Every structure is written in structure tokens, then in C-alpha cells.
Amino acid sequence: MNSTGRIFRVGLFGESHGQGIGVTLDGCPPGIPLTESDFNPDLGRRKPGRVGTTPRVEDDLPEIISGQFNGFTTGAPLTLLFRNKNVRSGDYADLRETPRPGHSDFVAYKRFKGFNDFRGGGHFSGRLTLCLVAAGVVAKKLIDPISVNAELVSAGGEKEIDKAVASAMENGDSVGGIVECRAGGIPVGWGEPFFDSVESAIAHLAFSIPAIKGVEFGSGFAAASMKGSSHNDPIIDDTGATATNNAGGISGGLTNGNELVFRIAVKPTSSISIQQSTYSIKTGKVEKLEVRGRHDACIALRVPVVLEAITAIALADFKLLAQSR
Amino acid sequence: MNSTGRIFRVGLFGESHGQGIGVTLDGCPPGIPLTESDFNPDLGRRKPGRVGTTPRVEDDLPEIISGQFNGFTTGAPLTLLFRNKNVRSGDYADLRETPRPGHSDFVAYKRFKGFNDFRGGGHFSGRLTLCLVAAGVVAKKLIDPISVNAELVSAGGEKEIDKAVASAMENGDSVGGIVECRAGGIPVGWGEPFFDSVESAIAHLAFSIPAIKGVEFGSGFAAASMKGSSHNDPIIDDTGATATNNAGGISGGLTNGNELVFRIAVKPTSSISIQQSTYSIKTGKVEKLEVRGRHDACIALRVPVVLEAITAIALADFKLLAQSR
Amino acid sequence: MNSTGRIFRVGLFGESHGQGIGVTLDGCPPGIPLTESDFNPDLGRRKPGRVGTTPRVEDDLPEIISGQFNGFTTGAPLTLLFRNKNVRSGDYADLRETPRPGHSDFVAYKRFKGFNDFRGGGHFSGRLTLCLVAAGVVAKKLIDPISVNAELVSAGGEKEIDKAVASAMENGDSVGGIVECRAGGIPVGWGEPFFDSVESAIAHLAFSIPAIKGVEFGSGFAAASMKGSSHNDPIIDDTGATATNNAGGISGGLTNGNELVFRIAVKPTSSISIQQSTYSIKTGKVEKLEVRGRHDACIALRVPVVLEAITAIALADFKLLAQSR
Amino acid sequence: MNSTGRIFRVGLFGESHGQGIGVTLDGCPPGIPLTESDFNPDLGRRKPGRVGTTPRVEDDLPEIISGQFNGFTTGAPLTLLFRNKNVRSGDYADLRETPRPGHSDFVAYKRFKGFNDFRGGGHFSGRLTLCLVAAGVVAKKLIDPISVNAELVSAGGEKEIDKAVASAMENGDSVGGIVECRAGGIPVGWGEPFFDSVESAIAHLAFSIPAIKGVEFGSGFAAASMKGSSHNDPIIDDTGATATNNAGGISGGLTNGNELVFRIAVKPTSSISIQQSTYSIKTGKVEKLEVRGRHDACIALRVPVVLEAITAIALADFKLLAQSR
């Protein structure tokens, strides 16, 4: 259940405050140039640091445990390990009995019958997205020269992102945002019929990123208000190019030769400094709660590189499937 | 690639104008009461007939080929077959070389190297949703007493649905819509960590329904404009009940004990009577095109029962997984 | 659980005495020439008729429900349906409470909580191998020009097969046999590392054929008595050709360029005319039992074409996987 | 391709002479008591040391990276890592161009296009069975109180195992063997119909152990020489107990309540001190070869605990599947 993909398979493991977190890429073809420094640029983009992100900073350099030899992927499973170092478990110790609103604390407790590592969200922590980004670095190499670029296009409903974030921080609050991803240079006809459409695969992975509440492709929810005569994209040549791109680059679930365009909605960070109330498992009553620890005022700021990663992962699998035919 | 699910597996087959279409349910537990008439209510709801839907009417009674004995499921694969009867292939014969805008014609031609059954969209036809609805009938029995209800909440941006549809029809045009689905009575903690969250599974299936452009859970895209202090749902008792339901019933990817709420955006039907232009594979030029045949002015009218079906299918698999632990 | 394969996926459905049995092939590439008469030769080889096989004869002509158009596979799921016609359920009616020794009656009753279609073994019937053979016909086309040939090499421990079978029949008894399969022309390097070796994939499928008790590759069980110096196959040229073939064409789980050679042990048919004893669910006591109905004295006679089929199915999946890299 | 199982999933990674090897168990239920010392007994049994096994000795203590907290499994993916320490890569450096007979060297080179880590067999090394044994330790806890016991019953065709091994060692040769595995206390009805029978699952995993050439259940290959009247096991009571156990505890692919009994054939170790000949990729000619390094004269000596492990892994998955119904 913690792995995904048909040929290019990605599996995650690890908890926020345990020994470490990691990812295994299975089905990665041999001969892709890969060294540890290749991970720096994307991992750097995910790092906290910008105003509105958590002050927790880890080295976050991956160790390549397997699947790489003499600077190339071997074709055997590629495992990357990130050790946890800067851990302050004390921040979270009392959260076992006081589940934070908006977090997985309560459901994880129930789902895992009280045995889950609750420290910092454990396996549900946003820290696991580090592994997605690392997997994305390999996937981007695999789908080269396809380009994948995501950016935060609004926060708190505003295009003036820094202003919206600053305003939320001032009040000890947090704010959501919208991230848009575009991928260019994808051949026509990638994707699988019923159940494994390109939208299905990308949405499946996108909803694995914590805090995502919605996904829309091309015209998305606006399509619901449109007429067919304005929504249909007229095909203009034999490459499949269309005069408009309401489809977002996907027809019938398959890539249609146009730019892949989709957006995701990121909810505001659940951890806020403002006092909230929640049910206490210990006292059996609703109690006041202040969430301590280090948090992002706008987690959406760190999502773009993660969204690029899951997009590349989905496309890498479709590429290998297309080659199999 | 035409099957989905981990334990409760659903696989589709068939083309719109071939011998028939069908579905195989694998992993369905034995002992569920099931007869052919059980399919009537939901299949009836999907049927055309309401203003704005296609005049093509099939009997659409499934034949239970296997997996049922003496009125109960046997636990062996359950295969349902719908014969195609009312077929007018002539309507579509020239579409091979004139791919319709907004349809899968062009990409299917490329993807299947010209060997696809292009009549009426072939395997990509909306007719395949008949099989999803049939699978949903069994899934609903499996998750009983959980309730699943979907309805069209707007069309063309209007809550006055009939009016919006009538207006589109008058002009030979089509219109999109938004369908909302709610499921009640789901235990806390269904869902799997990374990659198989409840959102991931439902979105994966929802994007298998033709014409869907977006999916959002709970507050959805509105969350992007919200503050954490108003978005977080305070837990109020030991069932996990929350004072608000911005999460849409899912926390950390797992069901949290509240009502599951999500919406999908349905694009306007691609087939319209208004003249359009498209690239002709035959002439190598952009040509005028009139789409003949029988079509829905608002395909969203027929989507609610399909959305219920895929929701029940996803929940059925999660239920069996939850029992395995 | 009733499907197998990673890209070329095969799923079975149906019961011996229900509406019919069938198979869906998913992931089959488009453009393979295929008509219903293509199934005749291999289905004919599986047919009863030779001395020692059951007198039950069905037409056993498959109907191609989907996935084929204008004489070629379309790339969409290919479903084949065999209607059951010559059914005499009365033969089996009392077996529900008197499980036959050597058969699945007792375990199926327990596994499916009494809801299984017990008539003629239901979903466990050897009749389902008809679907494997049909799937094999398509798989053989897919792996062309690789050759796959299986033959019964002994029955009852004797190379004089007809004699051994005749002797068993005279006494109302049955007899087992050994079937050997050879496949030539397989490229070097098919197969997947740990868990999906060629041996694993073939053995997995071979043990899906009813009555199989053992599988051995190359030197097989004889290897256990050999020395390394005589077992190792010296490589003699850059094609990977070896001076001997104790490996049976597989090294490290991957094809090594030599002929694939393996054997399976088929147990004697469980249904015999000789009186046996078994536990009666009805009386709670061990009772005498005579198995009526039509049966094979040596089911191994009909296994070779089934073994070829599962071999071709396994190789077809490996071929598509090899192309994906 | 390096993972297996439907609910209880096992994935391997690592190479013999790289950073380390490891295993991820996904789908393991929460609440199983587990500490690092629990691995000692089975890992100790796999260790070299007995006459006839390689002198290479590693500490081989696993580090639990994730999925365990406060002495119990958490339900999140459980990753175990074994660092490689005692590495002498020089032993193998020239084998890239001189593929050893009986080894994966040649096929791995072809399969992975020359990018494989060839040192010590890389990912194909028998060292990877360490991970299987570790996974087996967890699986045994999961299926408790089911017992699983395997032993070497013959080597070189002899029951006097030590004598057969000593004789091979004297000559710098190696020898094969037969390992038998028995599991008791398994409920009736575990296993899945077509394609995922208990035999299929166990054989699939058994052929993932390097050097295995055959698998047989119950009467196995001897069944091919038997009559039905002596092979059928009469059921004697309502537990499914049978007077004989020619079926090896499996009927119709499902467990039948009797002891599970099967045997595997292990070929003689491929690495021997005796001079052999092989094709040299470098010179393009057949050359003499002496295999240096540390090797087992009878690898079968170390197989029993590995066979127990894969049996427990298969049974663990079937147990979770049985609970899901």
C-alpha cells in the first residue's frame, strides 16, 4: 500500500522522528547517470527557509544504498536513505492523547490501534515528501527531455503570495494556496484505458501529498460552467496540436500532444499558534490546545517541487509502459 | 490496466458497437444475495430519457455469467455481460479520418496504432460506465449499511439545471455540471498510508469516468483561500466527530468518522450539433465537421449514479483491507 | 486473485456447469491477427477423445466478445467466452455433502462458506483450462517466432503411455504422468530479478493447472545428487550457448539463450470408478463413495497443450517487460 | 519486480558488495512485538560456519530503520538494513569479462546492458537471502502459532549429508541437496482460486531462492507413477483430516487442514575450485577459469531457514487475505 506504479515502482518508508526515511525505486532502467549531488537542486527547492516555512532544517542529503554503481543506475532496486538528525520529539509527546485538529493524529491512532509512531506525525509527516522529491529527481532523468514545472500561483486567494503569507504569520495563523504544474514535450498516446488514465495516475499521486484537497486538469472546475462549443479544443494539425487547451493535454485519458496542465488546491497548514480546541482522549472532554513545534505558515510554498516529482513519477511509468508495446 | 482494486478488483471489457460490454468482479466475498433484477434500479437511473440525454435506449439488462449460484455470490469471479443491440455503426464510419474535437478519436488512433474499434468511441465510449454502475450495485451491497448518494448540484454554472440544459439544447450545444457525492456511516481509519489514501483511490476511479475534469474533497479549492484557524475541524468526541467538515471526512488520507463529501467537475458533452472544425487525417487539412448520432446535451445528468458506483467500489476495497488487519 | 501477469494480464471466470467460462486478456498489444478459427488447433488438442479421456465433448468454440476488430486485436481488453452446453448437473448433486477424495469439494465448501457452485467442481473444474489454452493461443502469436512444445513423456512411470492408461482403465482406476515442455528462440536476459524469475513465473502458472504436484527446470531434482563440476554448463560463445543445459535455459532467474526445458508431475485423476471412502458432511461418518459422471483415466494426456499455453503466457509478459526497458 | 505479496508485501534491495542490503515489509499489521534481537536465531541458522559453508562471516545484524516503535510494529512499512562490511571486491574484479559457468554473470551483463554491479554477483548474490530470512522472522510472528520447519534431507543423493559434503570438498567440488519443509496448524481454506493457489505462491517464492531447480508438493513427482486409488487421500473427519497425505496439505490449491509438506531441489554450488572453461567476453574465446573467493561446498546446508522464511511469508499473506473475507 506504500508503493505505486506498474513498471517504475516507488515505495516509501520511514517516520518523521525515527531512524530515517527512504524510498525504493524498482523497475528503474539501467544506465541512467546518477550521483548523490544530482539530488541537491530539487531537495534545495523543497527546503524550508523562505518566509512562511518551518525553521527546521536538516542536511537532508540522501545516501544511495543500492541500485547505483560507477555513477549509473544498475537496473536493480535503487534505495535512497535520509537519516533523521535534528529531532525534538519532546515537542510532540503529549499529542498522543490530544489529537490536533486537521492532522492525522486521531485517525492514525485508530487505524494503527495505538501502535503508530506518533512523534511529529510519524509516517504521515510531510517530511516523507522529501522521498517523493528524491524519486522525482530520478524520474525526471528517465523522462528527459520532457519538461515539468510547477509554481505556486496564489495563496489565501491572492496572487500577492508574500503578502498573504505575511498576514497569516502575523496572526499565528496559516494560509492555503494553489499550485499549477505544466509538462511539455510528452508524446501523443501515453496513458492506459479505463482505470489508468493519465488524470487517474496523477491525481492518485497528487492526493498522496499531504494537505491536498483538490485536483483539476485543463479548464477544470470552470468546465462545469462552459458550453461544449467553447470547451472543445479544435485539432489543427497531425501532431494533435489544438487551438485551445481546455483539455489540459489529455483526451480520453491519454496524452494528446499538447502541454499537460493541471492545478492542485493546498489547504492551510493545520499546525497554527492560535489556540484551538480538540477532544482529549485522556480527559474525555473538549480541551483548549496550543500546538508547539516548528511549522510552516504556508505549506503550499514547498509543494511545487513535490508536485513536479509526482508528475515525473507518473510520466516515467507511462513512458516505460508505452515502450513495452 | 483495465482493472483496479487490491482485494475487491473490478475489470472492464468491451466496445460500444461490438458484441457487448462487461465487467468482472474478482475478490467479491461469497454469500451476498444477488439476482439480475437487483441491477434494475441503478441501471435505470443511468438510463437516458430525461430531457438533455441521448435518445439511444438499450435494454441494458446484464447477464450474470459466473460467480453467482442459487441467488448468492459464490466468491468466484463475478462476470456481468451486457449485449450490444441497438447499434447504428453508420453514424460513426467516417470519424476514423475526422477526429472529433474533445473526443478520444485522435489519441486512440495513435495509441492503438490504427487498430482500435473506433465505432462510437469503441472502448472509450461512455457506454462503458454501464459496467461501472453494475459493479457499484454489488459494491453497495458489500459495504451495507454505508449510504452513498450523489446528485447533480449545478449545470452550466446554474443551480437551475433544467433551464441551463434546455438553453444549451436549443442551440444544439451542450453544457457541463458539478456532481456532489456524500457517503455516511463509514468507520474511522479506512484507507492506506502513502499512495493509497481514500482521496487517491476515489480520485483514481473518478477520473476513469469520461468527461471528468476535476475532483475536490471537503472544502476543496476553496481551502486554498482559507486560513488554518477557520479550516481546521475541531474534534468534539471520541467517535472523531468534528464541529465542521472542511476535511470532507478524510484526515491524513484516512476516513475520520465524519461524512465523506466530495465533488467532481463534468465537462460539457463533446458531441454537439453545432458545426466545428477539426484536422482531417484524410485530407491533411482543417475541415468543417458536423457530429451526427445520438448524444447527451448534458452528460452530467447521468453521472451521479456512476459516481456513487465508483465510490462504493473504492469503499468496498477499503472495507476488505480493513478486515484483513 | 483470478488474474496474473504484469503487462500481459490474464483473468479467468466461470464455473463448469454455470452459464459459461471465459478469459480476459488485458494489455495485449494492438495489431495481432486474430479470428475465432485461430483457436481451433490448440482447443482441438485439449479435447477429450483419445483413449483415457472423458467422453464429455463440448463444441468449445469461443466467442470473441471484445478487443478484436476487423481481424486484429485492438489493444483493448480481449474477452473470450465459452458457453456451457452439455451439462448434466444431476451427476454431482449429492457431492455437496460427500466430498470426493483428492478433489477441491471439501476445501471449496469451507473457503466459500458453502456458497460455492459445487456442480462439477464449479470454478475449480479442469474445464477452466480451456480458457488457459485460449489465452495461450494469443500469447503464442505475441511471442512468435518463439516455439513452445510440450509432450507427455511418461504415464504411471512407464514410457509406454497407452499401455499404462489402458491398464488403469481396465480397473476403473486412473494414472499420473510427466509432461515436458521446451521453448526455443528466447532472447538472453528475459526475466526479472528477485521474486519474478522465469522459474517463479512459470511455476506460479503451472501450479494453476489442476492436478500438478511438481515442477522442475533443467536437471531438476537430479541436480540434488550432482556435483558442481558436472552440473555447471560451460558457456561456449557470445550468444550464451552452453555445452550442456543442466540449467534448463535459465541462469540467475533470467533466460540464458539456451532452450528452456522443464517438466511437471501430474497426479492421477482423482475421480475413479473404484469404490472409495470419505467423510460425509450429512451423516458425520465415513461412508463408501462411488464417483459417477464422465472422467479422464489419465488427465495428463490433456495437459501438454495447457502447459504450452501457460508457458507462452509467461513468456509474453516477459517479452513486453523486456521491450519496456 | 523486486516485491511480492498482495497484502503482506516484501521488497528487497541491495547488492553483495555495495553499501548494504535490505528489505521492506509493507502491509504488516501493527502491534507485533519486535526487537532487533528477535532476528538472531534465524539469522544465526543461515550463517556460514558448518563444514561445507563459506568462511565469509558478517555480523549481519539488521538495523530497524522504520515501522517499529516502542518494541512493536507500527503498521507502517518496516525496513530492515544490513550494512556490508567484510567486502573483498578484488576477488571478483575480472569476472566481468569472464562469466562464471552456472552463475548469473553472463545474463546479468546482458539484461542490465553492462551497468549491473557485478561484484560478488551484485543483486543476484545469495547474500540477499539474508533479507528473506529477516522477513521470515516477522512473517513467523504474524502466523503464530503455525509451525514451519525445514531441514536438509539429503545431499549428493545421500542421506549421510556430512559424508557427501566432505567428499565434495576434498575434490574442490560442490554438491546439491534436497530440503523438505513442513508447516502445521494451518486452517482449512487458505489460498486463492486460479493463479494464486498455495502451491503457486510458495513455488513462486521458492524459485526466488538462488540455486533451486525443482519444487514438489506431497507425493510430488512420485505421483506421476501412482494410481488414483492409492493417491487419493480419504477424508476421515470434519476437520478435513485425511488418512494419507499425498496431497501435501493442499487440495484444489487451498490448504486442506493437513500438514503442508513440500520439497525443493538445490543444485550444487556453482563456484568450485576445480578448473572450468568458459567464454571470455574479452578474448572472444573459450578460456580456462579458476573461481577464487569464498564459497560454500554445499549451499543446500544454508537453505532450510530460507525455505522456512519464504513459506512463512506466503502463509502470512494468505492469512491476511483470509481475514479480509
Mean pLDDT of chain A, to the nearest integer, reads 93
Quaternary: homotetramer
Q: What is the C-level CATH assignment of chain A?
A: Alpha Beta
Biggest β-sheet strands, sense, barrel of chain A: 5 strands, antiparallel
Named CATH topology of chain A: Chorismate synthase, AroC fold
The chain pair with the largest interface is:
A-B, 107 and 107 residues
- Kindly report the spatial arrangement of strands forming the biggest sheet of chain A: 1-2-3-7-4
Q: Order of helices and strands of chain A, N to C?
A: EEEHEEEEHHEHEHEHEEEEEH
Gap between N and C termini of chain A, in Å?
A: 27 Å
Strand residue content of chain A: 15-25%
For the CA atoms, what is the radius of gyration of chain A? 21 Å
Q: How many helices of chain A in DSSP terms? A: 7
Second rung of CATH, namely the architecture of chain A: 4-Layer Sandwich
Number of strand elements of chain A: 15
**Total number of domains of chain A:** 1
Secondary structural class of chain A: alpha+beta
Q: Globular, elongated, flat, extended or rod-shaped: what is the shape of chain A? A: globular
